[in-house]
Automatic annotation (TrEMBL):
Gene Ontology MF term list: iron-sulfur cluster binding; metal ion binding; molybdopterin cofactor binding; oxidoreductase activity
Keywords: Iron, Iron-sulfur, Metal-binding
SMART domains xrefs: Molybdop_Fe4S4 (SM00926)
Any single Pfam family the record assigns to this protein: Molydop_binding
Name of this chain's protein: Dehydrogenase
Superkingdom of origin organism: Bacteria
Organism, scientific name: Halioglobus japonicus
Domain spans labelled 4Fe-4S Mo/W bis-MGD-type: 5-61
Amino acid sequence: MTDDVISHYRACHLCEAICGVEIKTQGEQILSIKGDKDDPFSRGHICPKATALEDLHYDPDRLRMPMKKLADGSWQEIEWDEAFATVADRLADIQARYGNDTVAIYAGNPNVHNYGSMTHSGVVRKALQSRVTYSATSLDQLPHHLAAWAMYGHQQCLPIPDIDRTQFMLIIGGNPLASNGSIMTVPDVKNRLKAIQSRGGRFVVIDPRRTETAAIADEHLFIRPGSDVFLLMAMIHTLINEDLVDLGHLAAHIDHLDELPEIVSAFTPELAESKTGIPAATVRDLAREMINAEGAVCYGRMGASVQQFGALCQWAIQVINILSGNLDREGGALVCSPAFGYITRGEKGAGSLGRFTSRVRGLPEFAGELPAVTMAEDILTPGEGQLRAMMTIAGNPVLSASNGRRLDEAFESLDFMVSIDFFINETTRHADIILPPTGPLEHDHYDLAFNRLAVRNVTRMNEAVFEPAPGALHDWQIMNGLGVALAARKELDAKPLPAPDVLIDMGIQAGFYGEQQGHALALTLDKIRAHPHGLDLGPLQPSLTERLGTESGKIALVPDYVTADMPRLAEVAQTQSDDGLLLIGRRHVRSNNSWMHNSHRLVKGKPRWKLFMHPQDMAERNLSDDDTVEIRSRVGSVVTQVTATDDMMLGVVCLPHGWGHQRSGVKLSVASQQAGVSINDLTDDQFVDEVSGNAALNGVPVTVTAA
Ligand SMILES: Nc1nc2c(c(=O)[nH]1)N[C@H]1C(S)=C(S)[C@@H](COP(=O)(O)OP(=O)(O)OC[C@H]3O[C@@H](n4cnc5c(=O)[nH]c(N)nc54)[C@H](O)[C@@H]3O)O[C@H]1N2
Ligand SMILES: Nc1nc2c(c(=O)[nH]1)N[C@H]1C(S)=C(S)[C@@H](COP(=O)(O)OP(=O)(O)OC[C@H]3O[C@@H](n4cnc5c(=O)[nH]c(N)nc54)[C@H](O)[C@@H]3O)O[C@H]1N2
Ligand code: SF4
Ligand SMILES: [Mo]
């Protein structure tokens, strides 16, 4: 080989931590992938998934050309022109016959890890003219956006834990040691958590499992799944009843404060104890610690969002930070000041709730999207408006959304389905046409989502490592091509958008650090490019009061949806919880949602898909370690193996999501050899947080018996 060895610096895009990596290449060969020690944010930290980028790049199962499904179910490579024309014809035809809203889009998680998908999906959406769209948001963080929209006036106005300066961090239903942080972009999180302890602070984890994060915490408290709202309401109750409320500089910026005491009056620490299993005295102590620490933050993630009362939980977490004087304060929770997408008053895309509803169940839209839990019934239920066609973009809802088997059935019943994805997996196997984009190392990337959620203000441009293969298209080029073809077929006006870096450069120049705002840095994308290890823009700063976009310009402490949800909570408060088993999820650092199990280096070794169960719960059912068990829920059953561990709370069992690649037609040669099952064959599409429409994927009632 005569090529030179080149070092490329960019961020790993796989999870929210955006760790800097150094990728050494020679010609077309990847020589190594290592943590970039000169990245000021991630400081050389990476996890095992970063090196698996190599496997993804070379994966022989990764599609390189559009695929068309033939009548016998086999796949044929076709040219891009034919692919675009076929999709445009089929979708336009269905829309002409049945109406625009009979074609829907589901957009999955990697869309937010790929800037071209974000900048360009509008081209397709505009041509499609359908208001029926879904995304992984309603399987995940919708309650966060709902609270941000209703309380602060913009769905992206999300306060982030100031982890590097806090003295007390209360982590509710998050496991950053496995997930590397979420709605908190925090590379090297383990060292950042330990630093809280070494500067004399504390962090406490509330979780039904003694997780990797709980294991290094100062205190771990088990909690009964789905009961967090009682803990949080009782903490607010304590702050009010013990006269601890200290609003700090936000005092003049809060509306509806007077409504709060009435709302929380019945939610005593004693009620919380009976619902959560956490002693009333501890509940009170947690509330007091939020006030007493020099900078404290309550942070709740998947466990507090993706459950029956996700919206109330995320609202209550904001309220606790506000009442304890920790919102918009150093060491508390602060809104980022990113180079692109700085949220300020009047910013577009603020959010909305319930402007329209899903066709069968009548669940509300949020920010123009319908809840993913309604997708299957809106496809399968005959009648006016029945969905006839789907487009999935970087998503695998058959493994990711509740009641995956029903989605299998729904997708199979469609007149037409197109998927923008580079694998034939559990979802895309149902497509008629698959449009595969380039892989991550073949395109550039500017992070639109996670620079906005980071624990410091940071920015970087990630250049492509390799030229795309001849004939390959990026996601944004596919969206341009497909959008223009569909618009032409429907006789609409449509123009392709320029490359994403052009659009982002404009946004950065107009943005917070841009010349147009008179900032001394006068940032441009080229100036950012001159910092291949990333550019640090400093710690998070108090700035919320200038950015509030609510009608009154104040924080709406008690939004309407909260009041509206109180009767549902009151009902649950009065019912005796039964003592059946509840199922929750888990993540592992070597796994990434449903789509990195085709990397041998990530799946090898000890199986990571087994059911976790407390030994006493097992003994009651005459089960032993490694037994094969049947897990049953209202919607289905799976058979898998059980592992005994007292890391589980009594009465709670735990499975990871994203497994179950043995379904027929899946073309993932490594993943489909893995024995795990899909937890979402058990989760229930009727089990939701009704006020937000977010799926309740945690706290699902199940039985476990010997198989
Ligand atoms: N029970 C349970 N279910 C869960 C969760 C849980 O905790 N418990 N977590 C939920 C959460 S938080 C999320 S975010 C969802 C994720 O749910 P989804 O987003 O639906 O699924 P992913 O597994 O992320 O699948 C991503 C798909 O995108 C493709 N892909 C990857 N990169 C690209 C790209 O650059 N371009 C294109 N076009 N395609 C790409 C992959 O091949 C894969 O098919 O799962 C949810 N489901
Ligand atoms: N390695 C890896 N990293 C990832 C991902 C991945 O799949 N693998 N996925 C990425 C994505 S899309 C996301 S959204 C983030 C998620 O990031 P996190 O939210 O940090 O991830 P989880 O590990 O799902 O943490 C949820 C925790 O909630 C607990 N829990 C479950 N039910 C309850 C409950 O009712 N109450 C309480 N208090 N806790 C509960 C679970 O035991 C679990 O420890 O991770 C991202 N990072
Ligand atoms: S934690 Fe791992 S997967 Fe996430 S960005 Fe860093 S290296 Fe990539
Ligand atoms: Mo997610």
